[in-house]
Task: structure prediction
Amino acid sequence: MRRLGRNHGRYCGEAIDIRAVLADCQTAAARSGWSAEVISSAVSPPIIAFHRGGRSGALSAEAAPEVTPSRRRIYLSAGIHGDEPAGPLALRRLLIESAWPDDAELWVCPCLNPTGFPLNQRENAAGVDLNRDYRQPRSPEVQSHVAWLSRQGQFDLTICLHEDWEASGFYLYEVNPEGRPSASSQVIAAVEAVCPIDRSPVIEGRPAAGGIIRPQIDLVGRPDWPEAFHLISDHTRLSYTLEAPSDYPLPVRVEALVVAVKTLLDSVK
Result:
C-alpha cells in the first residue's frame, strides 16, 4: 500500500461534513440505548457525549440506576483536531455497528473540535489548538470538556483517536505509569493487517519500537497539556492515543482506528 503524497506542510486530504457525522452518531446512539449529553453549546455544532451502562454523571443521585462496581469504565474521544477526519468517522462506525462489550460502562465524545472541521484545520475557528489547552484551559470547548470530565470520575481505560499527516504508518502512544497489562503489541498486530505500521526508531521526536511509543510524560514541566495529559493526571492510569497515517486513503485510516479500538476494548478485564 502506497502513500498518496497529498500532504505538503500540513494535512491536504479529505474533509468531512461534521454536522452530518454527528447527526449519524446521535441516530445510531439513540437506536442502541445510549444517553446523550451536551458538553458545550458555546460552539456550533455543540459538543456532545454519549454514555451507555451504569450511571451518567449528568443524572441526580435519586434518578441514577444501580452501578455495577465490577464494570469496566472506558472513555473514547476523537475530533480534537479539525484536520483529522478518521477519528469521528471511526466512532460513528462503532456506534452504528454497536459492537461494544456488554460488561463495560462507556463514554464516547466523537468530536471535541466541531468548529475546526468546516475549515479542515487543526485548530478551532478561533485558531486555538485545543489539544494543547488542558493544563489551564482558556477555550470554551476545553473548559466545558474538563468540567464534564470532572463529573464522570475515574476510567479504567481512555482511548484518544488521532491522525498524523506526516506519519509513514499507524502508531500509538501508551501512557501506563503503573505498568498495567499492555495491549499495544496486540493492537499493532491487528492493525498491521489493514494498514502499514510506522516502525521508525524515533516518531515525533520520541523513541519508538515497532509502532509503539511509551513516553515518560512530564506533567509538571510541560505547560501545554494535551487531552491525554489531563486524563492521566485526573482520570485514568492507562491511556492510549491512536495515530492513523493521514497520507493513506481515508477508509484505510478509519479501518485502522476501528480495529485498534476493538482490540483495546477486548483487552480490558
Observations:
- The mean pLDDT is 93.
- The chain is about 25% helix and 20% strand.
- The longest strand covers residues 157-164.
- Helices lie at 18-31, 86-97, 140-150, 184-191, 227-234, 250-267.
